[in-house]
Amino acid sequence: MIVLTRLNGSRFAVNPDLVERIQENPDTTLVMVGGTTYVVRESLSEVIGLIARYRALVVATAHGLPTAEGQHLTLVPSPDEDVPGPNAASPRPGQR
């Protein structure tokens, strides 16, 4: 699950495997496989980054690979945590 923020500030978790598409015009809207839509504060780039981190963590955990130094086995960022976008460089397993 990834944690996102509604426009009113409340936080909720969504299963990224059920996201059909993400739109930004100007608000970021997630359209789910079942047709449900969610408008969130995070940018398109931030949501894509959260989904990429989630999937990378799932693969790393499944393969028993070490995670990046300082990475916790949680995808619930604190409100002040900087969430990297999809183009952010991340070290490969075993690299620092």
UniProtKB/TrEMBL annotation:
Keywords: Cell projection, Cilium, Flagellum. It comes from the Bacteria. Residues 71-96 are annotated as: Disordered. This is Flagellar FlbD family protein. The lineage of its organism: Bacteria, Bacillati, Actinomycetota, Actinomycetes, Micrococcales.
